[in-house]
Amino acid sequence: MWRIAAPMILSNVSVPLLGMVDTGVTGHLDDSTYLGAVAIGAMIFTFIYIGMNFLRMGTTGIAAQYFGANDNDGLRAALGQALIVSFAIALALIVLQNPIGELAISLLGGDAVTQAYATEYYSIRIWSAPGTLANYALIGWFLGLQNARIPLLIFLTINITNIILDLVFVILLGMTVDGVALASVIAEYTGFAVGASFAIATLRKRAGHWPWSRLTSISAYRAFFSVNANLFIRTMALMVTLAFVTAQGARLGGQVLAANAVLMNFQTLAAFGLDGIAHAAEAMVGKAVGEKRLDALTHVVNLTLKWSFFFALGFTGVYLLTGPLIIAMLTDLQDVRDTAMRYLPWLIASPLVSVWCYLYDGVYVGATRAKEMRNFMVLSAVVVFLPAWYLTQPYGNHGLWFSFLLFMASRGIGMHWGYRTKIMRSPLSPEVAN
User: Fold this and answer.
1) How far apart are CA 241 and CA 381, in angstroms?
2) How many CB atoms lie within 10 A of CB 172?
3) What is the rounded distance in angstroms from the CA atom of residue 78 to the CA atom of residue 69?
4) Model confidence pLDDT, tens digit, residues 378-418
5) What is the model's pTM?
6) Mind listing the pLDDT tens digit for each residue in 314-346?
7) Residue among 137, 96, 135, 112 at smallest CA distance from 40
8) Alpha helices in 48-148, H assignment, sequence order
9) What's the burial of 160, exposed, middle or buried (CB within 10 Å: 0-12/13-18/19+)?
10) Domain limits, the chain
């Protein structure tokens, strides 16, 4: 487990650390408008790119099961299909960039100046789409092979490149949101070059042939789309919820919007760190399903649940002790600091509330039980989050964060019930088996 989880924890933590650098660079400029604009622009790409994260999750589960069955041609098909779909989606995003951007920015709100800077950020960063989505496919495929070292290298290449270019473009060259966006574009393609070279080297070591009929025939994508269509709906429900939190923060005022942008880094850092263990669960559960071993499946879930709890407890402890220091590092705008401090307790509690849904996401991905993932996510968003937000509107931003944590808790409870009553009774996934 640690051979997979440790590199992925390092990989995942580097992603929100990059977000913290973006926040820190813009948060130390002379106007909070830049920070709000990057928060809005970044949320659009969080919505788009994490919305397309089914390319990684679905590829991991499918590849892991082919790996467990020792099917090298299946591994080639899994990678090829994921890359073809990722490039097709990226092309569509670039072609439709104007209507997508106009709609997203209008929905997320903010004043006219903030929206103008957010539009500038968006119009540059959208060109990272082919590299970003191809990286999702490559990372998911390597995880399916229980190789977390290459994803770590891809993540580190992307994020170190991005951080360096952030500092060069903004601090040295005097750019603002355009520099932050351009750094992201260059970094994604650098990471893709690294990942593609290792994928080629890996396949040379695994005897087999490219099953071209499974790459060129639409009907051959049935299993891929069966898994990924449900993952897409599930992820869209999550991203709509996150976007809703940002939009409601914007409607509560510029200070709340900026403070929530700072605080969301706490949530993202814990999520990506805890996802490292969930990624190990994906690969190991998928392998157990491919081998048709219920005993191995049960052992993996129990093991990863235990370690996920310990890590969540660690994040809560760190936030309790260093939360004010982290806020101060992310912005020197005193009003934003004071506002963020009022809502910090919600983020201190969040890791222990959210950990269960993160881990079970990994279990369900490895078992390719995407339909159940979709159902629990949609129910949590529609039946739990929205009513809770509506009822707690008099409490302002406190009510918004309470509703978000309730949403995360309901996901974990529902998925635990689903694991006990469905997956353990029928561990072989029908999406891939058929």
Assistant:
1) 7
2) 9
3) 13
4) 999 999 999 999 999 999 999 999 999 999 999 999 999 99
5) 0.74
6) 999 999 999 999 998 887 888 889 999 999 999
7) 112
8) 51, 54-68, 72-95, 97-108, 112-125, 129-144
9) middle
10) 2-433
